[in-house]
Design goal:
InterPro entries: Ferritin-like_SF. The chain has 9 helices and 2 strands, in the order H-H-H-H-E-H-H-H-H-H-E. By secondary structure, it is mainly α. Strands 1-2 form a two-stranded antiparallel sheet.
Length: 251
Amino acid sequence: MNFLTYLMHLAGSGAVAYYSAAQIRDIKTRPNILAGYQLAESGSVPFLTKLGERAAAEGDTWLAEKLAKHAADETRHGQVFAHALKQLDKQVIDFTNQPKSQPEETQTKKPQQRSPFFAAFFTGYTSEQLKPEVIDWNVFMGSTYILELDASKDFARMANVLPDDDAVSRNLKLGMLSIAQDEKGHASYLYDAIARRMPSSQVEQLIDVWRERKTKAMLAFARNLLQRKEETRSLVRDAVPAEKEPELVTV
């Protein structure tokens, strides 16, 4: 990583870290950020599962096993966040069952937009190229290594700003610290996976490429936060007793 990228990385990660810490510490904004993480963690499971099946079909048993463990971890992470929401009497909105507010033909013609972060992170790649059946392994490994490595630090940082004076916050803190350790383990196996495919000099080159992409994506995300004038879309609603998740084993 060159010095300019390093400075940009500090600026972008610092802004996002401040925002995330403030959002999760504030009891009013905590449910929405928890819901975002639940959707992200649970939403990655089908992708990782299909990648694991692809690795197995290609004869890479080691990678298939790692991806299966990764998918299982992400399933549990989603459950941790769902349980944290339940303790706040909230749950994620099921947008698939929301009534349509626009004519059907308008909805079908409206393009599906990526978030500013992922648009910048994967600039130059189409959605088709990023599907698990065809994604270049180096693209998957390099990008996901950076995301998992940074997520391990982000979750630990957010956990440490949670107050210790109530049981709900303490339980969430323990869960997020456990998730941070899992993310660190994911980054470790992904680094090993890259190293199994190329010389060490190329490993660092690949990581530098995705570090630069992540830095630019973080800055795009930070700019979007500063320029946003409308209210952030709510991802949660009050929990309905009959729909509440069953009690989970806490970490």
